Fold this sequence. Notes:
By secondary structure, this protein is mainly α. It is 75% helix and 0% strand. The protein contains 6 helices and no strands. The chain is elongated and about 70 Å long.
Amino acid sequence: MNGDKQVAMFLERQHIKHVRHYYRTVAEINIELAKIHKNIEVDINKDKYKFASEYVNQYISYTTIWNMKFVYNLESPEVALLQIFHLDYIFKNEPESLFIKERRMLLEQKEQFFKLKPYKEEHIAIRKHKMLQFITEKENELSEK
């Protein structure tokens, strides 16, 4: 009986260690993505990305995509995914000659994030489509006014 208790405690410690590593890694990714946002913020027209930012901000607690903080946000894989989408959208709409270093940093963080496998590929595709659809709808509403 004592052996079973030791095995259970060992497994629990291993699980806790794994969970801590996972959230620490997600936080590191989110911090790096936030740094990329800070680096590009002064060199872009943020109004051009207003709707993309508006979409992402719905999922960020107590702050914005341009001012990422709070442990809850930093440890969230959802926030990391949305930061990736946001940066992808910005870089897609900016000249390729700009932000070379930041694009490389984004690629590294994407690789790190997808190694964690927090979401299935279908979920990621659906989430990205949802964001793009939101942006298109907002732009259409704006043009109709």
